Amino acid sequence: MRERVNFEDVSVGDTVGPLGKGPFTTPHLMRWSAAMENWHKIHYDQPFTTGHDKLPGLLINGSLKQQFIAQLLKDWAGRDGWMWKVRFQFRAMNVVGETLSVWARVTDKREMPDYGLVDLDVGISNEKGVESTPGSAVVALPYRGRAPVPYPFVPPAAG
């Protein structure tokens, strides 16, 4: 986790990351599937996945990709910030052997009384540059010289 990032330190167009993950192996997916109790064969049974379901390979779990986006944003916000909203879509498959790059880009900033809100585009792409998981997020950041974003976080009335 990085040192404190303040609302004033962020500008529209700034990038966050990338956070690299992989290359992924079958054991990575097996461990995640076990932890999530997701036993769908497309995450661990190669013959079933490519033969029966006609998929290109063992699929990286959507919930694992979701966690990577959360990790990037929380690490960036630090202890004094708050990852508030995250939205994304699974638009392409990622398979064993790929290395993923998780990224975010600041698209807007909004001042609130006790903290600032930062809007971001987020996504995950593979080493070939194929975007699989586009989305957006809102992170609350503290103002310089002021208290951290309140915990528990109470969203603004209009956010």
TrEMBL record:
<protein>
    <recommendedName>
        <fullName>Acyl dehydratase</fullName>
    </recommendedName>
</protein>
<dbReference type="InterPro" id="IPR029069">
    <property type="entry name" value="HotDog_dom_sf"/>
</dbReference>
